[in-house]
Amino acid sequence: MKPDASIRPSDSLRNVRYEIRGRLARRAHELERQGYEIVSLNIGNPKAFGFRTPETMRLAMIENLSEAEGYCHQKGIFPAREAVVMQQQARGVTGVTAEEVFIGNGVSELIDLVLRALLNSGDEVLVPSPDYPLWTAAVTLNGGRPVHYPCRPENGFVPDPEELARLVTPRTRAIVIINPNNPTGAVYPRPVLEALARLAERSGLIVFSDEIYDQMVYDDAEFVPMATLVRDTLCATLSGLSKVYRACGYRVGWAVFSGRTRAAADYLSALELLSSLRLCSNVLSQWAVQTALGGYQSVKDLVSPGGRLYESRRTILSATDSSRFLELAPPRGAMYAFVGVDTRELPAFDDQKFALDLLEQKHVLVAPGVSFNVPYRNHFRVTTLPDPATLREVFGRIEELLQGYASAAAAGGAGPADNVVEATSRFK
Question: Are 271 and 318 contained in the same domain?
Answer without folding.
Answer: no
